[in-house]
Amino acid sequence: MIIKGRVKMDEKTKVLVSRINTGEIAVINHRDIDEVAANSLVKKKIAAVVNCEPSISGRYPNLGPGILNKANVPIFDVKEGDLFKILKEGQLIKIESDSLFYQEKKIATVEELTSAKVERLLCVAEENIEKELGKFIVNTLRYAYKEKDFILGKLLIPDVKTRIKGKHVLVVVRGQNYREDLGTIRSYISEVKPVLIGVDGGGDALLEFGLIPDMIVGDMDSITDECLIKSKEIIVHAYPDGRAPGMERVQDLNLEGIIFPAPGTSEDIAMLLAYDKGADLIVAVGAHSNMIDFLEKGRKGMASTFLVRMKIGGKLIDAKGVNKLYKSVFEFKHIIWLVLAALIPVLIILLISHPIQSLVRLLSIRIRMFLGV
Questions:
Q1: I need a labelling partner for 99 at 20 to 30 A (CA). Which of 64, 137, 294, 361 fits?
Q2: Those residues with Cβ within 8 angstroms of residue 346's Cβ, 6 or more apart along the chain or in another chain
């Protein structure tokens, strides 16, 4: 197999997908390609993925490579060669067998991750999951103590312009199954009109469905300029010491933002903010809620998420998987039965209504006269 294409490259896959085009080759540095990254690359209809890190390290069964395989997007792991030093964006490369060429000169040795190899590597990862789970639990408990202010209420939560008290709040993260879940609850959004909070790229997820975020919460590293400009309010997630690298981007767009220093993830502080401001109900879409989700996000524990969910308790509904619960197949026979059911009251009216019976007899006489019967 020979693959040719122009290179788009970035250390961060989520940054790369915002500018890569159809038919180009993605050069990334992404250990354990996750589900969200893989789906984003598939959506761009790229020619191939060249990964300078192991696409499956064996730590845990990550979902990304399987998704790329299923979509017929070839994946190559670099075994020898430093592409980020050798290549420049936009250059034309060729992948042939286990070699990568630029201007007919071999610059790297690669290995294709076929479906069989992916399956074999995932089997190894499944065997390692128990060890990884042990480390994950230890880290979660250790950091839970450090981040206990989420529960004790010592965290200073900023004032916001968006009115939340007494309303439903929809917190959208661009995580697993977010498209399916958003599609499933479209009627809920239309009827209830909840406050819409996008967590970083979750803001763009809302835009995909024609919805304008009332608020964006995050460190601003995976959201488009378009979404930031359209959003009604911006909350920049800062480090606990107050440093907020994302604010620079907001100011470069001549926009205003509110800094929220806090430990934990941006989705955690979005839910905590909604709870603190008096939300009647918090509905989470695409949120990270299990160990695999967090390992794919690159985190070694879920202390803040554990603590936040303990605090907001009964006000939180997780929409993850709702689409699977309510998914149904609408077949043609259902339409036939629907039509027949609708005809039943019509037939009853025809049988008992004297004016309609007279009209039918009149029409019958007219037809016989016309036919000369």
A1: 64
A2: none
Residues 104 and 168 in one domain: no
In a domain, 300, yes or no: yes
Residue 126 CA, distance from chain mean position? 24
295 & 338 share domain: no
353 pLDDT higher than 90: no
For residue 366, the one-letter residue type is: R
Question: What is the enclosing helix (H) or strand (E) of 99?
Answer: strand 99-102
Calpha distance 271→173 (Å, rounded)? 11
Are 180 and 310 members of one domain?
yes
227 and 366 share a domain? Answer: no
Q: Does 318 lie in the same domain as 188?
A: yes
Q: How many CB atoms lie within 10 A of CB 367?
A: 10
The DSSP output letter for 55 is S
In a domain, 47, yes or no: yes
Phi, psi (degrees; rounded to nearest 5) at 256: -100, 145
Phi-psi region at 34: left, alpha or beta (left = phi > 0; alpha = psi -120 to 50): beta
Higher-confidence position of 316 and 310: 316
Q: CA distances (Å), 185 to each of 83, 210, 246, in order? A: 44, 14, 31
Looking at the fold, whether 309 and 162 belong to one and the same domain comes out as yes
The pLDDT tens digits of the residues spanning 230-270 come to 999 999 999 988 899 999 999 999 999 999 998 878 988 99
Supply the range of the domain harboring residue 210.
Answer: 153-325
pLDDT at 298 over 60: no
Alpha helices in 147-277 (DSSP H): 149-152, 178-184, 186-192, 202-208, 225-230, 245-252, 266-276
Q: CA distances (Å), 65 to each of 5, 46, 51, 75, in order?
A: 20, 14, 11, 7
341 by DSSP, 3-state: which?
helix
User: Residue 302 corresponds to which tokens in the numbers above?
Assistant: 């879920």
Residue 30: closest CA among 57, 54, 63, 66: 54
> Does 176 lie in the same domain as 307?
yes
d(CA 161, CA 45): 40
Is 128 part of any domain? Answer: no
Residue type, 181: D
- Domain shared by 343 and 289, yes or no: no
pTM greater than 0.85: no
* Structure tokens, 103: 């201007």
